[in-house]
Amino acid sequence: MSAPVAIGVIAVTLIAGASLLQVTSTLEARHRASAGAEVAALAAADGLIGYAEGDPCELAATVANRAKAVLTVCKVEGLQVDVELSVATLLGPAVGRARAGIP
Hints:
Layout: H1 3-49, H2 56-66, E1 70-77, E2 80-87, E3 94-101
Helix pairs in contact: 1-2
């Protein structure tokens, strides 16, 4: 195999690997945002109905920080809480949404 062909094969392999790494990183961030939103909503609902001490949105923000995410929405309506978390990625933010509480 000649040197230009070998360099071309190596370059294509590196580009494909870097692309795959970005995609898998974005998928991982999306799963982290979704799971973090679920747990943050449950923590906020616990605060709302008295199982945990503290403001529901502050509890959700604490969980979001531990999930390495940012709490972008925390809306309390009656005995339900809606939360939205965002995780930054190279391909844009990954967003997770969840609702918890007593219907």
